[in-house]
């Protein structure tokens, strides 16, 4: 018993005619008749009896017809659902973000929603280690991080952007004539940095260590706005990436280029060597559209 046989049987019952069923299914009437004889032999019971011009279902035929009709209806729903997913009319994108890069993804998410309004986007915040684990075990389709991602770890990765770092200082006194700030100069003041777990903070502390500098870290936070407020309050110097400076108040603050090779990057990564859903492929394409200079 297979789907084709059930389809032939249901069509005969609905049309009350072997000939009309054969025409609708684009097969010959003998093909229909043979298929139904084989079906009756398989179930061990007569399924249809003729009463004049009418085909009547036997009790076994009635049970088989009801179940077959349900199976065929569910199959059509499955085919439609798969077609919708294939055409991006439905589906789900499960995306992980780490706290600091998360503020940068509103643009590509908006673009994605415009292109694929039927796809549900689920965004959850993870630290870098948890995001890697979730992508590997399939809980997430892809994730965004500011830390390097190596292919040998089982991931494929796309660097979306790379920004220089700035020293954020008050617009006053000693800072007014400066054009830039080096690591050693920044370390003379209380520093306002992101959390110890963040890759940016770890890279900065490693840079200080290479120069045998032990800075005073006055404040740690993954909230850029809070660090900006602390600079305005005179708490110290914040090290921030270029995008944070784009909306700052130039009348109260200065952001001076940090003389350091360090950069703040956003990396999109997903599991390598496995099948990717259409929604994930579309997200990768949206990111490449939004950040044309992105590189794998």
TrEMBL record:
Keyword annotations: DNA-binding, Transcription, Transcription regulation
GO cellular component, one term: cytosol
HTH lysR-type domain mapped to chain residues: 1-58
GO molecular function: DNA binding; DNA-binding transcription factor activity
Signal peptide per UniProt: none
Family: Belongs to the LysR transcriptional regulatory family.
Protein's name in the database: LysR family transcriptional regulator
Organism this protein belongs to: Siccibacter turicensis
Lineage: Bacteria, Pseudomonadati, Pseudomonadota, Gammaproteobacteria, Enterobacterales
């Amino acid at each position: 018993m297979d789907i084709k046989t059930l389809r032939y049987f249901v069509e005969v019952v609905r049309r009350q005619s072997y000939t009309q069923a054969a025409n609708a299914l684009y097969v010959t009437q003998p093909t229909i008749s043979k298929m139904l004889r084989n079906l009756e032999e398989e179930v061990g019971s007569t399924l249809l009896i003729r009463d004049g011009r009418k085909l009547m279902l036997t009790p076994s035929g009635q049970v088989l017809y009801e179940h077959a009709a349900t199976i065929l209806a569910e199959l059509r729903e499955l085919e439609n659902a798969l077609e919708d997913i294939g055409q991006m009319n439905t589906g789900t994108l499960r995306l992980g973000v780490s706290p600091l890069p998360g503020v940068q993804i509103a643009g590509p998410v908006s673009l994605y929603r415009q292109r694929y309004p039927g796809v549900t986007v689920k965004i959850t915040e993870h630290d870098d280690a948890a995001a890697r684990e979730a992508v590997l075990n399939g809980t997430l389709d892809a994730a965004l991080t500011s830390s390097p991602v190596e292919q040998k770890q089982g991931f494929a990765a796309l660097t979306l952007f790379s920004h220089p770092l700035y020293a954020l200082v008050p617009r006053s006194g000693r800072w007014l004539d400066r054009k830039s700030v080096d690591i050693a100069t920044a370390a003379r003041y209380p520093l306002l940095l992101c959390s110890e777990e963040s890759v940016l903070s770890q890279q900065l502390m490693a840079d200080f260590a290479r120069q045998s500098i032990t800075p005073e870290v006055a404040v740690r936070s993954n909230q850029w706005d809070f660090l900006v407020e602390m600079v305005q309050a005179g708490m110290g110097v914040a090290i921030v990436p270029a995008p944070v400076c784009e909306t700052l108040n130039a009348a109260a603050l200065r952001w001076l280029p940090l003389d350091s090779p360090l950069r703040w990057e956003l990396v999109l990564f997903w599991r390598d060597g496995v099948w990717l859903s259409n929604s994930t492929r579309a997200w990768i394409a949206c990111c490449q559209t939004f950040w044309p200079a992105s590189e794998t």
